Amino acid sequence: MKKRPNYLLPAEWEPHKSTFICWPIQIEDWPGKYAPIPWVYVEIVKRLVNHEVVKIIVQSDEEIEKVKKILQRAHVELYNVEFIVAETDRGWMRDSSPAFVKKDNETVAVKFNFNAWAKYDNYKKDRKIPQILASASGIDLVAAVHKDKKVVLEGGAIDVNGIGSLLTTEECLLHPEIQVRNPGFNKEDYEKVFKKYFGVTNTIWLGRGINGDDTHGHVDDLCRFVNPTTAVLCMESNSSDDNYMILEENYERLQDARLEDGSKLNVIELPMPEPLSFEDMRLPASYANFYIANSIVLVPTFNDPNDRTALGILSECFPDREVIGIHSVDLVWGLGTIHCLTHEEPS
């Protein structure tokens, strides 16, 4: 009989108990464009509350009433909104949160050693987020350790199908010099971590992430599972674009990819929006940064002709969910969009 894994990381489309977000206060994340950002969050919360509890991290007790008033101005029902008071450095919950895994019929939070993508210095408050969320949810917290070292891993660096397969990139986890998360780790090391804490027996390694991604290769801007046997992969039609060869190479890799049972992965192409820049900086605008919630899928849109195409493709991928576009032209100036700022808590 096949041994059941100690922990199993559910796929994002499995039932949620709640969604965690952190109310934005970090003006420096959107320099010169912060004013519209809280209203993007309002729209996200408004869409989610009809389907699951939204747990919002705020910096102080005083901020709770301020956020409530903002939500009420947009006629957001508060019956499904809860607040957690905790100080943070940033609000990218996908990466600072723990991984909520299943152990038998219980949920356990696995803590990874967040270090702000091995790039920024202000992360000490965010490093406490796993303990805060585990305590708020009343569940155990387990630290991920390999070779007697605390493992660094962000949620945006991986994507799972919930039954044994995981997507990630070599650029993010294996680059020897740039934004090195775990010095000395190789593929075998990571695959042991994935197996131990996520129940993953099959890792699909892609190459590079998209241009403009300051995380250096997160897979959630590139390629995502949409069901246990299918993944969407961003593709660029303009051969002169910086992303063209990157995405072509990843497409070639996926042609040879196999799932945990040895079957071939079904790959659906997802377009890229036109390059989006601000102050001479290429931004990581991508339709792959969608968030799968109970009954709905929230997709970033960019005032682009491909918005409609991407929403149509994802609607076909999720026939039992409503696929909703969230305007993200201002949001992506913070170098992340909807999947980056949310994190699910499984039922």
Would you give an account of this structure?
The chain has 347 residues and is of the alpha/beta class. The chain has one domain (16-346): L-arginine/glycine Amidinotransferase, Chain A (5-stranded Propeller), CATH 3.75.10. It is 25% helix and 25% strand. The protein is built from 10 helices and 20 strands. The strands form 7 sheets. The protein has a 4-stranded mixed β-sheet. The chain has a 3-stranded mixed β-sheet with strand order 4-5-6, covered by helices on one side. The radius of gyration is 19 Å and the shape is globular. The two termini are 27 Å apart.
Topology, please?
Elements: E1 16-22, H1 37-48, E2 53-58, H2 61-73, E3 81-85, H3 93-96, E4 99-103, E5 106-111, H4 116-119, H5 129-137, E6 141-143, E7 145-146, E8 149-150, E9 159-160, E10 165-169, H6 170-174, H7 187-198, E11 202-206, E12 223-227, E13 230-235, H8 244-255, E14 266-271, E15 277-278, E16 281-282, E17 291-292, E18 296-301, H9 306-317, E19 322-327, H10 338-341, E20 343-346
Parallel strand pairs: 1-2, 2-3, 5-6, 10-11, 13-14, 18-19
Antiparallel strand pairs: 1-20, 4-5, 7-8, 9-10, 12-13, 15-16, 17-18
For the secondary structure, the number of strands is 20
Strand order of the largest sheet: 3-2-1-20
Work out the radius of gyration.
19 Å
The CATH architecture comes to 5-stranded Propeller
Main CATH class: Alpha Beta
